């Protein structure tokens, strides 16, 4: 479907968020194709029952874990990556054997219409349905009983989804977001500084103009390197995206006027405006905002306490980069944490002393397309995981199956109870086979009843 309709995918994504063909393929069409190919190549293995090692205590017995579909699942998608965020979970749900209802975001109407018109041409319309509509339709869908709900979007709506799901005890996967920081250990990566700056710049402004749940939300750097970092970023931003708002290119636009105004309002705070060291201009007609860099905006400002979801990059300075761990831990757990450092001791500290949905060293964003690793949040950034085998698991119930025979049938399992049977239980739960055998053969004593 994606291959046949590739040009229509490109057009829909351009109409919704202004993505170029390259960005649309790199971030949406390509990952969806990869996910299909990966699932098809691995599905036989994913579906196969997995043998479980059963202890001798249960002899004779064998066990296995059998994946089975949840049944009827609801997938609710977001507007920032409206194609991939619909197809990636759909691939996992179908692979696991579920019937699916997809509710695309009404804020990406072109992609929503594309999915509604195209999916029935390729998939069984009795098992896979696309339902379009606004918040009222979403509310009606949430009031129904589902076997699983998969939601991608904001924490605010995620709470609504979870509340409605709780009424039917429906399990949920919530892919939310948060403020994803990057620790920039300037001194330790001096030999790779050019690569690090390029990766930071392209990830922040090249991925849907910062409108991504795993986009870099702010940078932590030592105070003595801040001016150098700002200068390097400004130079590369001008080269990649243009000198000013009039020459802006290679960047997506805000999805709609509401989100455009929300991001612009961050910059209207006088204290935040005073921290602007690059950019700050915007084009209301075309919903474009210039890549903007802030240096030490107030930590109590809105821009430092809400997920930005736009082309603003605050840089926060610290006396020592090691302080970044404490800074991050004082805030809600992010969906992603990035760290550019060659300091192995520091890496170990970050791994062991911070919590995030994912942690990536010396690169940004690419964890999203790594099928071998789970993608998901923790705390306010979400619950559950998917991608690759984890997508199959997200839409499967792992049923435990234990096979047993009729011999031996030990009388110690049954009443009437006595001291011997109590001792049998004590030794058995210790999984002490030697003393259990001695007890059964009468060669091991035990406390008698009073």
Automatic annotation (TrEMBL):
Molecular-function GO term, any one: aldehyde dehydrogenase (NAD+) activity
Keyword Kinase attached: no
Pfam families, per database record: Aldedh (PF00171)
GO BP terms: aldehyde metabolic process; response to abscisic acid
GO CC list: cytoplasm
Positions annotated as active site in the UniProt record: 175, 213
Catalyzed reactions per annotation: an aldehyde + NAD(+) + H2O = a carboxylate + NADH + 2 H(+)
InterPro entries per record: Ald_DH/histidinol_DH, Ald_DH_C, Ald_DH_N, Aldehyde_DH_dom, Aldehyde_DH_NAD(P)
Keywords: NAD, Oxidoreductase
Record flagged with keyword Oxidoreductase: yes
All copies of domain Aldehyde dehydrogenase, residue ranges: 4-401
Entry similarity comment: Belongs to the aldehyde dehydrogenase family.
Protein name per UniProt: Aldehyde dehydrogenase
Organism: Chenopodium quinoa (Quinoa)
């Amino acid at each position: 479907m994606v291959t046949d309709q590739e040009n229509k995918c490109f057009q829909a994504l351009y109409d919704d968020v202004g993505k170029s063909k390259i960005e649309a393929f790199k971030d949406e069409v390509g990952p969806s194709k990869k996910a299909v190919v990966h699932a098809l190549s691995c599905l036989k293995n994913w579906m196969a029952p997995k043998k479980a090692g059963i202890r001798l205590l249960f002899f004779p017995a064998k066990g296995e874990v059998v994946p089975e579909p949840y049944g009827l699942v609801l997938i609710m998608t977001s507007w920032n990556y409206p194609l991939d965020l619909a197809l990636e979970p759909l691939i996992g749900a179908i692979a696991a054997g579920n019937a699916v209802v997809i509710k695309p975001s009404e804020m990406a109407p072109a992609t929503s219409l594309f999915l509604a018109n195209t999916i029935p041409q390729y998939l069984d319309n009795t098992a896979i349905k696309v339902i379009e509509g606004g918040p009222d339709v979403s509310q009606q869908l949430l009031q129904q009983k589902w076997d699983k709900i998969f939601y991608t979007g904001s924490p605010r709506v995620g709470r609504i989804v979870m509340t409605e799901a709780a009424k039917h005890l429906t399990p949920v996967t919530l892919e939310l977001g948060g403020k994803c920081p990057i620790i920039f250990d300037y001194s330790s990566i001096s030999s790779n500084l050019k690569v690090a700056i390029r990766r930071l710049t392209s990830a922040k402004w090249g991925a849907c103009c910062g409108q991504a749940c795993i986009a870099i939300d702010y940078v932590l750097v030592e105070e003595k390197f801040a001016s150098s970092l700002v200068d390097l970023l400004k130079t590369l931003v001008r080269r990649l995206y243009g000198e000013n708002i009039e020459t802006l290119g290679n960047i997506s636009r805000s999805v709609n006027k509401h989100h455009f105004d929300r991001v612009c309002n961050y910059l209207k705070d006088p204290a935040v405006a005073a921290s602007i060291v690059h950019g700050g201009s915007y084009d209301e007609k075309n919903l474009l905002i210039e890549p903007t860099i802030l240096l030490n905006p107030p930590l109590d400002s809105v821009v430092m306490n809400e997920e930005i979801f736009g082309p603003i990059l605050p840089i926060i300075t610290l006396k020592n980069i090691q302080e970044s761990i404490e800074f991050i831990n004082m805030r809600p757990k992010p969906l992603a944490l990035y760290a550019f450092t060659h300091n192995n001791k520091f890496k170990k500290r970050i791994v062991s002393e911070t919590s995030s949905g994912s942690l990536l060293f010396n690169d940004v964003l690419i964890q999203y397309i790594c099928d071998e690793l789970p993608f998901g949040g923790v705390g306010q950034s979400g619950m559950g995981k998917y991608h690759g085998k984890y997508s199959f698991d997200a839409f499967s119930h792992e049923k435990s199956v234990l096979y047993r025979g009729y011999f031996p049938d030990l009388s110690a399992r049954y009443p009437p109870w006595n001291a011997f049977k109590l001792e049998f239980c004590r030794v058995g739960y210790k999984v002490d086979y030697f003393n259990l055998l001695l007890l059964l053969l009468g060669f091991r004593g035990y406390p008698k009843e009073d």
